[in-house]
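[Q] Does anyone have a clean structure-token version of this?
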Amino acid sequence: MKLRILTAVCAIAMIIFIGLGLGRVEASPTIIDFELEIEMKDGQEYEIEYEMKKNQIEAKYAVPRSVTVYGQEALPKIELFLKQISLVPEVDKEELMNQIFTAFKIDKKDIEEIEVDVKFDGGKRLKFEQTFS
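[A] Here you go.
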């Protein structure tokens, strides 16, 4: 009986995995650590943090005009944001910044500084910081 249930659960998981397109070979590397900080000229700040530690996820989603949320409550907001940008180790930094600004509907001229630090599985990393005048 337990074997049947386990088999059924595995089959359902595989259907979901393939149905969501997660079984494709060309899938992007998995993000294991993501940090984004944007400081606006008016003092407002955007801060998104996501870190996968073993089987636990630490997360924070803090953006202006929104309640700061942590942990499991932050994950849907972070996942929605990450779907709006193309985050791979080889991404053009200028293009990524434009995608981030578009996702938050903020104007580049209003930004003081942006910092991005992403660690992918397999050891790849994307890190940059830019100050605007």
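[Q] Thanks! Anything notable?
[A] Residues 1-26 have pLDDT under 50 and may be disordered.
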